[in-house]
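Lab notebook, entry 363. We have the chain sequence and a SMILES string for pyridoxal-5'-phosphate, and the next step in the workflow is to get a structural model of the bound complex before anyone spends time on docking refinements. Request logged below.

Task: model protein plus pyridoxal-5'-phosphate, output C-alpha cells.
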Amino acid sequence: MNRVYNFSAGPSMLPMPVLEKAASELVCYGTSGMSVMEMSHRSPDYEAIINDAEAMLRKLMNIPDNYKVLFLQGGASTQFAAVPMNLIGRTGKADYVVSGQFSGKAFKEAQKLGYDVKCAATTKDDNFDHVPALTKDMFRPDAAYVHVCYNNTIYGTKYPEIPDTGDIPLVADMSSCIISEPIDVSKFAVIYAGAQKNMAPAGMTLVIVRDDMLDYAEEKMPTMLEWKTMAENGSMYNTPPCYTIYIAKLVYEWLLSIGGLETMQKMNQEKAALLYDYLDSQDYYIAPVKKESRSMMNVTFVTGDAELDKKFASEAGKAGLKNLKGHRSVGGMRASIYNAMPRAGVEALIEFMKAFAAANPKK
Ligand SMILES: *Cc1c(COP(=O)(O)O)cnc(C)c1O
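Result returned:
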C-alpha cells in the first residue's frame, strides 16, 4: 500500500527517515537485545536516549543554559492547569490572550481553578480570523505572566512576531509550531507543546522553563504537575513517555542532519507560500485568515458552500490527500503542512484544488 499525504492537524505525519530508522530498531535497539518500548527508563541505554534528545533539542532551538527542558505526559491540555499552578504564586494574578479555542481553554482552566485571571485581548468577535495586536500597556503590570497561543491550529493564525509583554513573563503554547522555524527562546519564560503536531507521536509534552520560574508553585499542587519536581528529577520523577521521547530524538536528529531550523523554516516558508499564493490567485476558494496573521503550519480555506466543502474533503481523501476537513467547530478545509509534509504533497494538493474547482462550478 502506498503512503498518502496526511494533512491532519495532529497526530500528523512524521518524516520518512524517522519512521524507517524506528522500524529498523523496533525489535532490537543497538546491542540492548530489546525494543526501546521494553526498556527500563533507568537503564544506561535509555538514559543515553533521553539525554541525547535533550541535547539535540537544546542545539536545535538554541535553548539558553538557564532554561530547563522537561519531557512530560498529559498533553498540552494538562499544561493549561499546570501553568497557573506553577506560576500564579509570583503575584497572584495572570493575563490571557484568547486568540482561538486552545487559548480559550487555557483561560477557562485557570478561571476554573479559582485564580484571578483576566482576558486582556481577544479576536472572538471576528471569528478569530487574526491574532490580537498586543502592546504591553494592555496587561496588568503586576500579572504573574501573560499567556498566549503562538500558532492557532484550528483557525490557522499565528503571531507575526513575538508579543512584547515588557517585564511580564511570557508563556506560550507552541504545540502546532514548535521546531518549525528558529525562535528566540530567551524572549519567553515558558514554552510548552504537545508532541503530536510537529515532534513525535502523541504522549509527550515538552515544557521549556526558565530557572527563575520554578519557585512559585502552589504548595498543595499535584506533584506530577510541578515543574520543579520534574526538573530536579530529569523528567523521571515517574516513568516518562519513553518511546515517544525516543521518536522525538529521531526527529531532532533528522532536523539537525538537514541543516537545523533555518533550513526547515525555508522549506516551510516555501510550502506555505505555494499554497497561499495559489489561494490569492483565484476566487473559487477563500482564505478567511487576515494576511498578516497567516499560519505557516495550518492553512484554512473554504469554498463558501458547505456542501462543496464536504465534497472536497471526501474526494480529496479518495485521491490520497487525507484529513483536509476543517475542525468540527469551524468547518471548511484545513491543510496542516508541518515539517514532515513534503513539498510534493502541497503541490499535489494545489493540483487537486484546481481540478476540483474546474469540475464543480459554483451556482
Ligand atoms: C493540539 C493542541 C492542543 C491540545 O493538545 P493535547 O496534547 O491534545 O492536549 C493545545 N494547544 C494547541 C495550540 C494545539 O494545537
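Notes for the group: The radius of gyration is 21 Å. Worth checking against the assay data. The chain has a mean pLDDT of 97.
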